[in-house]
Amino acid sequence: MTVLDEKGELTSSPSEEVNPLQVQEWAYIRHQVTSLAVTLEKMRLAEYIAYLNRPGRLIWINFVVGLVRGLGTALGAGFLAGVAYFLLKRIVILNLPVIGGLIAELSKYVHQP
After folding, report:
1. Which of 106-109's residues contact partners 24+ apart within 8 Å by CB, and which partners?
2. What single string gives the DSSP state of each residue in 27-74?
3. pLDDT tens track of the chain, all 113 residues?
């Protein structure tokens, strides 16, 4: 009978002959199982499953992430609009004929209460 010893090597009883192909197959299977275990550890699959098993925490974290994304979007859009307005005001100062008039009108609308 062929069995695995403590080192993970195949051993057999003296009366049974070990086929080299079987040894290679067992080594390949052992390598694949080890590789799968390492991959699952890298993926932190157990932590992910524990995360999914607590729906309250899942909802709370998604809610907070949504708030942060919304805040980031609003701040980013406000910053970009401010930079664009600043650049457009600088163009008005250059007194370009067509663009300057349009930007001056835009500036009037921005400053209206």
Report:
1. none
2. HHHHHHHHHHHHHHHHHTHHHHHHHHT-HHHHHHHHHHHHHHHHHHHH
3. 555 566 666 565 555 566 777 888 888 999 999 999 999 888 888 888 888 888 898 899 999 999 999 999 999 999 999 998 888 788 777 777 777 777 778 778 878 76
Rounded Cα–Cα distance for residues 71 and 29 (Å): 51
DSSP reduced 3-state for 101: helix
Rounded CA separation 103/28 (Å):
72
**Which residues are paired to 10 by β-bridges?**
4
